[in-house]
Amino acid sequence: MRPPALRALARGLRARLVVAFLLVAALSALTTAALTFREARTAILKRTQDTAVNALRSQVDSQVPDLRFPPRTGDLVKFTQDLDRAGQAQHWVVHTRYKDGPLLPQTPHASHRIPQDVRDKVRQGVAAFQRVTVDGDPWLVIGLPVAYRDDPADLSGLEVYAELPLRQDEANVHALVEAAQSGALPAIALAVVPALVAARGVLRPVRELRRATQRITEGELDTRLKVTGSDELADLSRTFNDMAAALEKNVAELRRMEANSRRFAADVSHELRTPLAAMTAVVDVLDEDAGSLDPDTAHAVRLISEETGKLVRMVEDLMEISRFDAGAAALHLDEVDVAETLRKTLQSRGWQDKVATELPEGLRARLDPRRIDVVVANLVGNALKHGGEPVSLSARVEDRPDGEHLLIETADRGEGIDPEVLPHVFERFFKADAARVRSEGSGLGLAITMENVRLHDGTVRAANGPGGGAVFTVDLPLRRGGEEQ
Q1: Alpha-carbon span 397 to 453, nearest angstrom
Q2: What is the mean pLDDT of the segment spanning 412-423?
Q3: Which of 100, 142, 236, 444 could form a disulfide with 317 if both were Cys (CB 3.0 to 4.6 A apart)?
């Protein structure tokens, strides 16, 4: 079996261009050889044929005047032998016949070698010739009608046939074919050089385009191609440059808008903190005295207190996500007991009786307790608010080739998450009517969760459990005491 590198090379554009070039060269060589063979064979055989016909006619014309008509058998035999001797240079075999008499000399193969078509034409007074193959050997059969010497238009009834072997001519043709083949093979081999040069010329712009595309993918949006020539590849390079320029402009504008929006959110959340602090203090005082107020006023005070709390949490989320965007979020690792840390998160929010836990005892790891608290609180609170009970929280250690990993998993028994929503649950401000993650909060809870997990070099994923409900899994590389960030 061929190695993958060879298979990739065989499927590459260079190999296909070289093969196509060689196929064209081979087809051209074969076509030239075939045409040369046909023309050479025709020329050689025609030359042999014309020479033999003229020589036979000349010998017949020179010896017929000595022949008496009607000829006797002995005279015909002698006439035939004289023609044979005269044609030793051509190696022909002569047969004669007078009117309806037998062919002389009478040999077993005479009638077999002379085609009937040739005989019919000679009887009609027309000279004829035809190439035939007998026992695998090529022969040229010539037939001449003989006229009286006094009146060339008056046929005497004498017919002369000559059989001429063409083995030497066929040998010459085969030698020519072999010479053409011998010349074609080196020509095809030499065609590899221009094929490689042509393939290199075609592929160089393609390779440059591939490298430029890779640089664009890596974020180097100022990448441009050098345009030379005016062919289709040059047009492709110009189009690529236009596309890269438009992409660079659009991305720069998007980055500018994104930076402005982040700066706006950070500024607004920062400016809201002071008035919100004053509002919270006032609302707390009013909330303490709500019991002494009339029902309508007490209801309004509690509503204001609740909405103020939501606004405070939203501003806090905006401040937190702004710190992540600014790169100001720091990780403060401490060696903690994993089970105890997760239980504290549940107890501080009064969820210990609502959430079933399966936590390993004695497992210690280097984590940022505050950020893990935020992660678990967001996931468990999301499950309690939008999922279905019972909600479970579990942790376990998993061995992998790159080391141990801590997996923290929350699961509920709700309707689960719409598959179309799953890829977007960690996006900022994302809400969907059919999604389980739709909330009345800021829409930043899961985004903050993901950022905190990333600070720990981990990942978080959402899925639907096999028995129903949503499952969120936090995957963290397990660092124990003494290990550094």
Answers
A1: 16
A2: 88
A3: 444
